[in-house]
Write a structure and sequence with these properties.
Layout lengths: L11 H13 L11 E7 L3 E6 L4 E4 L2 E3 L4 E3 L6 H4 L4 E2 L2 H4 L8 E5 L3 H4 L11 E5 L7 H9 L3 E3 L3 E7 L2 E7 L4 E3 L2 E3 L3 E3 L2 H5 L23 E3 L11 H22 L2
Parallel strand pairs: 4-15, 6-13, 7-8, 7-13, 8-9
Antiparallel strand pairs: 1-2, 2-3, 5-14, 10-11, 11-12
Length: 256
């Protein structure tokens, strides 16, 4: 992880491990390493969570913090360099890759809309355009004037070694040397969230109020499933903190 104050460079699994140790120290929580397959109920009757292994758990309120499922293009070599030299967030990983030749995988318009920001880390930029991502003539002229390369041949695969990405192979077999690639995958909700029929916005993100309450009473949500912007650990923890406060407050008010 990058940009997490006090935990810069820590592996996500290690951060979760540290969090578990801290929570376990309070003595009233336990962890169940099973996938929740179904969630049923309402605030009056309470909720029942059923896991894929058949375990049941009861709850008065539930915080949904499932994150999102990334949808990656089917390109050989992508998984080998994902998170190291193929990144989704230059704010988190750009410093380590600064000054190197970058590629920007353009399969959504936001990648071109934010084109100028990548110059914060490197001046050597090539935008690899997927079908349907051709900028209008005025934007093409603007990008060319700023020294950005536009490559219309599609990427066939990513190449490199233990040190990281070294090149991309295009559909005609030619190679383009790149030491870093920015890719912002499309996303979808996990099956559990999709099954709950929660209100979502035009981008598909779950809608919550200021207390992180969803459209279903007793269900709260925090983290990446609420927005599709600059998703990061800090924001998710902040949302979770506020959501937890709302849950405690609402439970206190409901006591007779």
């Amino acid at each position: 992880m990058g940009a997490v104050l006090g935990r810069d460079g820590v592996l996500p699994a290690d951060l979760r491990g540290l969090g578990r140790q801290e929570v376990a120290g309070y003595g009233y929580a336990r962890f169940v390493d099973e996938k929740v397959q179904a969630l049923e109920g309402d605030p009056r009757r309470g909720f029942t969570l059923t896991t894929a292994e058949g375990s049941l758990a009861k709850a008065s309120v539930v915080l949904l913090a499932c994150g999102m499922v990334d949808i990656f293009p089917d390109l050989p070599g992508l998984s080998a360099y994902w998170g190291s030299s193929i990144i989704n967030c230059p704010f988190c990983h750009g410093y380590e890759l600064r000054g190197k030749p970058w590629g920007i995988f353009v399969h959504r318009p936001e990648m071109l809309e934010a084109a100028e920001i990548y110059r914060t880390w490197t001046d050597d930029l090539i935008f690899f355009l997927e079908p349907g991502m051709e900028p209008d003539p005025a934007r093409q002229e603007d990008l060319a004037a700023k020294g950005f390369g536009l490559e219309r041949r599609r990427i066939r695969r990513f190449l490199g070694d233990d040190a990281g990405l070294s090149a991309v192979e295009l559909e005609d077999g030619s190679l383009v040397a790149r030491k870093a690639m920015v890719m912002w995958p499309h996303q979808k909700h996990c099956d559990l969230i999709a099954s709950l029929d929660l209100e979502t916005d035009a981008q598909g993100s779950v809608v919550v109020d200021q207390g992180f309450r969803t459209s279903r009473g007793g269900l709260y949500a925090a983290g990446d499933l609420l927005y599709q912007g600059h998703q990061n650990v800090n924001t998710a923890m902040h949302m979770g903190n506020l959501a937890a406060a709302s849950m405690v407050f609402d439970l206190a008010k409901s006591r007779r």
